[in-house]
UniProtKB/TrEMBL annotation, chains A, B, C:
InterPro entries: Beta_galactosidase_C, Beta_galactosidase_Trimer, Class_I_gatase-like, GH, Glyco_hydro_42, Glyco_hydro_42_N, Glyco_hydro_b. Residues 602-653 form the Beta-galactosidase C-terminal domain. Zn(2+) binds at residues 118, 158, 160. Keywords: Glycosidase, Hydrolase, Metal-binding, Zinc. This is Beta-galactosidase. PANTHER family: BETA-GALACTOSIDASE GANA. Gene3D superfamilies: 3.40.50.880, Glycosidases (3.20.20.80), Golgi alpha-mannosidase II (2.60.40.1180). SUPFAM superfamilies: (Trans)glycosidases (SSF51445), Class I glutamine amidotransferase-like (SSF52317). It is an enzyme of class 3 (hydrolase). The active site is at residues 153, 305.
Length: 658, 658, 658
């Protein structure tokens, strides 16, 4: 199977989305000149070109794209060629309104923006397949072609009648019989029993709360329906070019696609990464996305999009201070990226994203933004051969699962303040600040390689996953599990006792009397720390140690943190320092060590292959002591016993071979 | 006429909604075993069983219900049997989309939740009547049957075309001629004059503010249209079982149903009661709902639903601390409830309310929740014979009216910060904290039995109601009236002068120059207290005493509180302490006494029949001095001269007969 | 051409909207009696009378209007006669649903409020024209008729299919070819290229951000479509009565109508003015609206609506304290108004605005509100002859432009916290607090008469406007320009470099590296002041002086305020005091003087013709020193060397002729 390695060939891919159709062709020459100056070796083309290629139904205008790819090839720049199917031309919506999505309320989602297609529409799929076929046939042998990029940021949800029929077929295949569906959905509640398949609808606007199992299945279905769109196009291009790797770009921490399942269908896993430059935890967020994507990719991965400066979709869009783009770029490489791309090469002058930065901003080649891009390109060229294709390893896994996520976002739960993604980020932060390397894993996956496994929260856990966790602990693994885990099964049905009995036994809990969610800003005293967000009224069974008890309030004296052997249960959310302390202590017991001991605050150390990356996320310089002799590949200078990092500074250290 | 007494028969009914269709039949035996353990003597069945009974149009599946009722009868548990018409099966919406409601925007409200029926739909009504007919015929003589429960929490609003026609017929009957309607609605304003009946619509989405009289009539109509659904089903069951009392459960302080009018159509008045366990005024809120429902019932009433633990529809859903369920349950009994039921018996494992507590929670029979339920059941059995059927009396009435409420919630009023229900609760709180027993009454009702009448606010007052208030004062009654009262007539037409002339005369007001609403958080100085929310620029006519004047600001020196004989007008909202002080002083002048003098803060005393209930709403123990010798029916212990109440503790004291 | 002068004839028009159709005819006599008492000489009739005049399609009921106009004429009260086309009768929507607007979501906007017409509907336009024709023919020679008032507060947006066709015709006329449209809209972005005109839609609900140029054109189109409705009716009445001036009333600072363009189509420019009585900057806001409307009118203008007391559409609607109505009324006259009218004469008892005040409030003729109205009427009669028709002059212009405004409100911009209207008001406030007279002007207009020109912000500037500003400075003018100006061209296309090159040259800016918007509440240190809302990373070209630099943070040392000769660029928003200081200093350098030196805070001085108005916006009395001998026209008393103003007091001073 082709992989990112086939495109990178010992380099780090560097570049971005390139939409030259927005510019007169005389600008193109300037583009490639500046790309070469910046060390760009890969650009993504065609993402939004459907209307240029097929200006009217069935037409094909490939001339401009021929000239573009020839130009790229002539300059040795590889093309990540997109199927332009994420944004159908206006004629499609005008001619075939049934290809347009409808909201839960039945309102039509018009063209005039992007991603205005119903993933279940056969008409849309037919047009998309025909265009993909012709595109693949035409460029299969083009020397510029290095990667196929299918569609873009799949994210469209639809509640139309076509979708309803498709949803019913998907349900038919999942449940076979209506009785099984009625049982799984618990339709005895509120008189929702379905008597015929035809009665079943997507969860549309209703008078009050909707059926949570129906909502869960609709989320599963939508991820699958979008994936069908993806695999249909992937199969076409793969038929033409079995040697060219295929990807589609994920949005970061996006609930609409089960990335674990999608990743299995990709040759390259790629993601779009947009931390807020003013987010004090932006560096950790960037690290988390890297760890997550690397885990999905099971190896090197691709940053398909990041921003060289500000984005334009926040309320207030902050630029990146000098050095931050470089810091976060090299951080992604440190954590396994072999391709580092931006949206987009040249900032648009028109359209909805003209205030979204580009590598070449409105300020042009003299702009600070481009100067920094040029530096990054040069540095990637310096380190590419030593980095590309190498691995990052970790002793710790954080469990992450879409079913559990979807289940946790439903209406009518104990606390709407609990955010699955915030919990994942908070727990990951505890490890990151302790300097511990981390991966992500699926609850049902093979965990035997890890010394420690964390579960920030998995409200939904299937039987196999529960057994997997129990077996992991029985096999000597250390498990730290956050609150409200194992509450429902795969049908979103509450486990007897409110928590799976096997897990209760694992943690030494006899009875879960009540969940006590906390109000916004409220805390609950515990031995040695304050809990936030949640607490639980647990009755232990005597087999576990109460590591910390609640103090004061209604839960006074009851266990907040339980430990039974190497299984830990944390029934509240400790503050950041307390959580870091707890995880650090458990990790140490489990034999997990940080990458480098004694780092100054804000400095991150990552080992990739034979290299040691040091990244200073602080706004002040930092001195790092080193346990040996190194050379900094970026400067060529020796770093014996220590190195000085400037604000946002980075060192890429190789061992000095004797 | 049948009454709650026929079902209670000297006991307090205790139980809850029971939805065994959600469970395998083998669980039922366990249910009745635990019910017996908990002293459950009444369960509500069938509320959401339409799809079980009529799985497809016209089908009837009564077997399971036969078995269920037989089982209940065999264990001496009474059945409150519901017509399951609040949640039609999916087949109805699929087959007859015109039975589904439409929003103001014209969007369809789908099935997939509950209460998805247009109350004006003849198709829905026909199906509902047919099912009710068969249900009543089948179980008329069943020994388990004790109460009919029609539908559930009627709350559906609809703006569809069917509703439009129904609304026009309702208007035709109210106004007879279009001229009368045009006059009542003031359609000369903004060119809204209707030339034919067919032009009239429900108040749908519009460009700007809508006609307030049309909105008011639409609220009246919707309450009536829902009531037609109720009475149609009630008439059917009553024909079959004239001896069985009928009820439908109100939502607490719900604007959609004029509970005074509905209560006249019920044999039993029942209500669903869900104070927030963390609300510092939860106990007073519970007391207010009890007083309100008892007043509507004109005697003993029924808690149809309360929660043994958390609900699931708040942002953060707090459990009840140990003792609170018992405290609020006994409080309801103290204030006249002869039936104390929960939603629901066994907590659901599936569906939208699986995180809503049950009497038997996910933690099961060993859970704290069930243990407390068992205690309450036992205690109700202890006191039932002495309590059931007895009366609660009060010298004070708070006036409460749906027309006034509806009028007060319209667009384009002086201040959107003024909340009718908050005013009602705030004034009731003033009495409750003073330990004064209270009832609620209608503005046009017989007030002669009361020493004091309070009007927190009645923006709309019809002529008869105005005359009634004037006559009440002329007859020696004490009236305390809040701001912005008597402003509009029954057509929502402003009274000349901005306040009814008879009321101005009653309070000694010559001219209402302006209303001065206050911004959020702002206060206005008055003699001896600070006013909030509102103030008024009043010119007195010299016949009244200015009890307190405004001090500072634009109204400096003008009257804030006016008194003319026994008629008081309060033109602002005093802070809680000041309002309590004012009401206490006026009450004392009117000869109204608290139930018990010298109570510690947080302790409530209520007399019901011959018993004295003491309820400690505080989280610390409290000692209460008693003016005599009592025995606590719950413990059998003597309480001579005083009693000690634990946190959330309750004593039910009977006189020691010599 | 007729003008306001023809209606005013040496007086100040005083009166309000008069809707006697809401009252029995016996009330009319009382109305005119009180009008005469209050000095009312002009009333606006017919605004919402469509359903009274045309109760069913084609009918005409003019009798009541004949009687009304005769009554007014008999009492010497002029009639501003409205075409009642802003609120079609219910029969129109019922009979012709296609005349009703649709929202972006496709939802129907129903009748039952007002302004429920699609401006593109030919059916609506046909009915409106026919009625206007008959109205004009009937009353052309009526002695009461003084002004035509077309429609009312044009503000209806519509996204229906009829609108889509109209929008396409408008676009056809703007762009001629589809290629030109595709180029102007930048449809190469996101594959939005239109292949046929028929594909083009109004910007309806979409999946993500919409095309900003399409949105901009739709705003231009809607203003034009509404203006077509206006001019069609205007042309009809003008044909009947070429000597009678025509107006339509603007809403204040309303984005929906390009008031510059509309004003060119009016004989009288009129506006509705509703400052919040509790707004600490209400007086300045009132001044700004006056300056803006006077500038649009190029001379005397008309307050078509203001409120004698509270309005009813704010969350909390505050009355006007005693004296404030008079203060703001005389302020409008000082700033050029020759007509001062209210919505409305007699406060309604019914309908959506019954809590909106009237000149004759619910309290009636003894109410404080009417007493103050009477005083104002008397005073206007005193000063009318000396004031009416005279001019107000200014040395300073603030530039204001609808295209720039519309461009600034789009999705996906650097900061959603930036409000165009707040910036305009903040800069105007700097001048107002310095006592400097101000006008408003268009960016492309003749600026040669001004010593100083301010640009609070003009994100969009066409080429001619840019050249105009450059020429103004080259010609010796002083220009002070706020941030983010000159960023896009008339197609909303970013200027190369992110800011027009001519402007960069004008201000001495080499490169705009990045825009740095600030978070809410954040500030950025600058030499001598703190900046808010925005900052910019500018690289000067060495030709300009850095008047103030940023201090601290990422922009440390970079220019915050640049000056190159008489061209100033302010790249942040200084706090109010700093902005006032800066503008005052630049004004002084430019030879601009305040109306009167040494005024106490809160006292405003305005010269109109030969008169000096002094207005005390403070709540305490103020003493003003005067540079000469005056007489106060309101009191007839001498004001030698000084005058004492009471709270909210006003003096209208004439020179004492020797």
């Amino acid at each position: 199977m082709p992989s990112l390695h086939d495109a990178a060939r010992g380099r780090i891919l560097f570049g971005g989305d390139y939409n030259p159709e927005q510019w007169p062709e005389e600008v193109w020459a300037d583009d490639v000149r500046l790309m070469e100056e910046a060390g760009v070796n890969s650009v993504t083309v065609g993402v939004f070109s459907w209307a240029m290629i097929e200006p009217r139904p069935g037409a094909r205008e490939f001339g401009w794209l021929d000239r573009l790819l020839d130009l790229l090839a002539a300059h040795g720049i590889g093309a990540v060629l997109a199927t332009p199917t994420s944004s159908p031309p206006p004629w499609m919506g005008a001619l075939h309104p049934e290809t347009l999505p409808r909201t839960e309320d039945g309102a039509l989602v018009n063209y005039g923006s992007r991603q205005h297609f119903c993933p279940s529409s056969p008409v849309y799929r037919r047009y998309a397949a025909a265009l993909t076929e012709d595109l693949a046939a035409r460029y299969a042998d083009h020397p510029a072609l290095t990667v196929w990029h299918i569609n873009n940021e799949y994210c469209t949800h639809c509640w139309c009648d076509e979708t309803a029929g498709h949803f019913r077929r998907w349900l038919g295949s999942r449940y076979t019989t209506l009785d099984a569906l009625n049982d799984a959905w618990g339709t005895a509640f509120w008189s929702q029993r379905y008597d015929t398949w035809a009665e079943i609808l997507p969860p549309r606007r209703a008078q009050y709360m909707r059926n949570p199992a129906q909502e869960l299945d609709f989320k599963r279905f939508t991820s699958d329906a979008l994936m069908e769109c993806y695999t249909a196009e992937r199969d076409i291009v793969a038929r033409h070019t079995p040697h060219i790797p295929v990807t589609t770009n994920f949005m970061p921490l996006w609930s609409g696609q089960d990335a674990w399942a999608w990743a299995e269908q990709e040759d390259i896993v790629s993601v779009d990464v947009y931390p807020d430059p003013t987010d004090p935890h932006g560096g950790q967020y960037n690290a988390m996305l890297a760890d997550m994507t690397r885990s999905q990719a099971r190896g090197p991965w691709m940053v398909m999009e990041q921003a060289a400066g500000p984005v334009n979709w926040r309320d207030v869009n902050h630029p990146k201070p000098a050095g931050l783009n470089r810091l976060w770029s090299l951080q992604a490489v440190a954590r396994g990226a072999d391709a580092l791309c931006y949206f987009q090469w040249r900032q648009s002058r028109q359209g909805a994203e003209k205030f979204h930065s580009g590598m070449l901003s409105h300020a042009g080649e003299e702009g600070r933004t481009f100067r920094e891009v040029r530096r990054i390109g040069a540095e990637l060229a310096l380190i590419g051969a030593e980095v590309s294709g190498t691995e990052v390893t970790a002793d710790v896994a954080v469990l992450h699962d879409w079913d559990a996520w979807w289940s946790s976002t439903q209406q009518g739960r104990p606390s709407s303040l609990v955010s699955y993604t915030e919990l994942v980020q908070t727990w990951h932060r505890g490890l990151w600040e302790s300097g511990i390397s981390t991966e992500f894993a699926r609850p049902g996956g093979d965990l035997s390689a890890y010394r420690m496994v964390l579960v920030p929260q998995l409200q939904l856990l299937g039987d196999a996953a529960v057994d997997n966790l129990v077996a992991y602990v029985r096999g000597g693994g250390t498990l730290v599990c956050g609150f409200f885990t194992g509450v429902v099964d795969t049908d979103d049905r509450i486990r007897p006792g409110g928590m799976d009995a096997r897990l209760r036994e694992l943690f030494g809990i006899r009875t879960v009397h009540e969940w006590w969610p906390l109000d916004a800003g409220a805390t609950v005293g515990c031995d040695g720390f304050d809990g936030t967000l949640w607490s639980e009224e647990l009755e232990p069974d005597g087999s576990a140690e109460t590591v910390a008890a609640y103090r004061g309030g209604e839960l006074d004296g009851l266990p907040a943190v339980l430990r039974k052997g190497t299984a830990w249960y944390v029934s509240t959310l400790p503050g950041p320092e307390a959580l870091r302390g707890l995880l650090g202590r458990v990790a140490a017991d489990a034999g997990v060590r940080p990458v480098l001991e004694g780092l100054p605050p804000g400095v991150e150390a990552v080992r990739r292959g034979a290299l040691l990356f040091l990244l200073n996320h602080g706004r002040s310089p930092a001195a790092v002591e080193l346990p040996g002799r190194y050379v900094d590949l970026l400067t060529g200078e020796a770093a014996d016993g220590g190195v000085e990092l400037e604000r946002y500074g980075v060192a890429v250290l190789g061992d000095v071979r004797a």
